[in-house]
Automatic annotation (TrEMBL):
Pfam families: RibD_C. Signal peptide: none annotated. It comes from Amycolatopsis bullii. Residues 111-174 form the Bacterial bifunctional deaminase-reductase C-terminal domain. InterPro entries: DHFR-like_dom_sf, RibDG_C. This is Bacterial bifunctional deaminase-reductase C-terminal domain-containing protein. Coiled coil: none annotated.
Amino acid sequence: MGKVVMYGSVSVDGFVADENDQPGPLFDWLSGGDVPLDDSGVVKVSQQSYDYLRPYWDEIAVTIAGRHVFDITDGWDGKPPSGVGHVVVVTHRPPPEGWNPEAPFHFADGIEAAVAKAQELAGDRVVEVAAGDVGGQVLAAGLVDEVRMDVVPVVFGSGKRYFGPVDAQHLLEDPDVVIRGNRVLHLRYRVRGGTGGEG
């Protein structure tokens, strides 16, 4: 079984967006370099960021996101982001009216069901969990193996928290990756007591 990774860009004070779901400068680093990260030609990062991110992106088979993110992105128009094969949406509501049932999106009622479905789809590849409320719930349930953060030098003061509703202490190992890019610091931590996925 592949590992479950909680991932997102984050302000130095721990927010993934402001109160209005706006990421502000959190993604500026994705256009602040000269090395294309994907085929779009829009995402260009430093060589250091590319060398760290490209192999990771290639490992991701499934992304888990909450219904709120799904709704504000209009379901990515039925095409999973960043070339990911499938998206599992945690929701208590049915898919939107007119949603294409052939789109590689799966709707799960709860985080345990979402992680189980994502791991079934991913096989031995990575399941990525979006940071925020759903990511925090998956971490609190002990289902996250690794936390990856792209820390951006901005202070939000308030907004949507990286770890969402987590209100208990969770220990991470010392960071085993610390990479400085342009306007971003990439960090990777293993979670003590995670699900034990290989990696």
